[in-house]
């Protein structure tokens, strides 16, 4: 396990190529690539110009390093449980494909979701619900403020002996409200349910302790808080998925697949643990070095220090905006809101998309989601970005 550096971070804007006149508070949509990640991509493309000397092991070594780095980031002791995936939908499809293998699965059970979840975490279950005669149980978000503690209580109450699977994010993708993953994981184990987490809007910016949470699956896209390239992600699959059924039969996922001179000695056995769930051509000669660079950078920065920085950066803005009629969920540990992704409820008179466009005209980038503006700062942001945001929003309201 990594030894924590308690030194406070200052802005890392100098490590990014964002122009000073652009105020990008929108990492939850897509992270800007750091110069380190950008250079890793350029170097990888340069290597592609001349593949002379490429060895069979080079098809595997990059993913080995990335699995190790991701394991360090989430405090997972076994990198062989990490698979390379192209998207969250792919990662969740692995869970759906194998749900029929779950011990005790029976018709009439439910899959528990939270309200207004990202579509990839919802569409994944339509077919398997039809095939296994399961139902979806959606836990509604409270109308009243604060929402986090009550929403967490409702979620725990919804998990019972008839629950087959619980699918929960660490941080809600629109509202920034946190879910107590340790408590949810414990409840799921008590009733014998599988527990799958979409970590896309949290892992990399919010500490994640696999040893404490122990999910059956953790699925992350790489282009948001992992600060990597698009179309490349990572997933943890626990013992429940051992000997399971992959979505595709990639030759690379079989034993001794690095022995190119013996590839037609067809091998029925897979490489161990989560390896069978790797997407085909998971080498990603250009993208993988970029993800490796971003993960190394995040491990150096440390998610808890990112939380501290984004909280300090934004904390003076919230009272100002509340005076304008906006509302912000309180922090409240693991049952409040995150510090890196915050849903700002606008006054009833405001239309979020129109407000977003007004901000964009002033070079301030945030997202409009349902009735909120989603504010998502990172280490590349400075006080000047926050001031520009507050000024633009004040003007818009």
UniProtKB/TrEMBL annotation:
Q: Domain (Aminotransferase class V): give its ranges.
A: 66-389
Q: Which InterPro entries match?
A: Aminotrans_V_dom, PyrdxlP-dep_Trfase, PyrdxlP-dep_Trfase_major, PyrdxlP-dep_Trfase_small
Could you list this entry's UniProt keywords, alphabetically sorted: Aminotransferase, Pyridoxal phosphate, Transferase
Q: Which GO terms describe its molecular function?
A: transaminase activity
Q: Which Pfam families match?
A: Aminotran_5 (PF00266)
Checking PANTHER family in the record gives: BLR3095 PROTEIN, CYSTEINE DESULFURASE
Identification of the protein by name: Aminotransferase class V-fold PLP-dependent enzyme
Its taxonomic placement starts with: Bacteria, Pseudomonadati, Bacteroidota, Cytophagia, Cytophagales
């Amino acid at each position: 396990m990594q030894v924590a550096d308690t030194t406070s971070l200052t802005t890392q804007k100098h490590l990014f190529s964002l122009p000073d006149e652009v105020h990008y508070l929108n990492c939850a949509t897509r992270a800007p690539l750091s110069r380190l990640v950008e250079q890793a991509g350029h170097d990888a493309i340069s290597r592609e110009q001349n593949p002379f000397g490429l060895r069979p092991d080079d098809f595997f070594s990059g993913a080995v390093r990335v699995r190790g780095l991701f394991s360090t980031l989430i405090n997972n002791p076994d990198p062989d449980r990490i698979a390379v995936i192209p998207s969250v939908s792919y990662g969740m499809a692995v869970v759906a494909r194998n749900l029929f293998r779950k011990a005790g699965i029976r018709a009439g059970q439910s899959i528990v979701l939270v309200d207004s979840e990202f579509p990839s975490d919802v569409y994944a279950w339509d077919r398997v619900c039809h095939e296994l005669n399961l139902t979806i149980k959606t836990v509604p978000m409270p109308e009243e403020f604060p929402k986090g503690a009550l929403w967490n209580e409702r979620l725990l109450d919804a998990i019972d002996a008839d629950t087959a699977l619980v699918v929960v994010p660490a941080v809600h993708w629109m509202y920034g409200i946190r879910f107590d993953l340790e408590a949810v994981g414990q409840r799921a184990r008590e009733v014998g349910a599988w527990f799958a987490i979409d970590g896309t809007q949290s892992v990399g910016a919010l500490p994640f302790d696999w040893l404490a949470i122990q999910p059956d699956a953790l699925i992350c896209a790489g282009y948001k808080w992992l600060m990597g390239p698009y179309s490349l992600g990572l997933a943890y699959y626990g013992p429940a998925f051992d000997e399971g059924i992959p979505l595709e039969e990639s030759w690379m996922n079989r034993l001794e697949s690095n022995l190119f001179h013996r590839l037609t000695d067809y091998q029925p056995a897979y490489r161990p643990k989560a390896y069978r769930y790797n997407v085909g051509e998971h080498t990603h000669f250009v993208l993988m070095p970029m993800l490796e660079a971003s993960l190394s950078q995040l491990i150096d920065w440390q998610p808890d220090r990112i939380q501290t920085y984004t909280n300090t950066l934004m904390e003076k803005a919230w009272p100002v905006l509340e005076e304008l009629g906006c509302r912000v969920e309180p922090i409240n540990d693991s049952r409040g809101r995150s510090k890196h992704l915050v849903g700002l409820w606008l006054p009833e008179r405001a239309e979020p998309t129109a407000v977003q466009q007004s901000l964009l005209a002033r070079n301030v980038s945030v997202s409009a989601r349902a009735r909120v503006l989603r504010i998502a700062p990172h280490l590349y942001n400075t006080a000047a970005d926050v001031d520009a945001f507050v000024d633009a929003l004040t003007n818009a309201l």
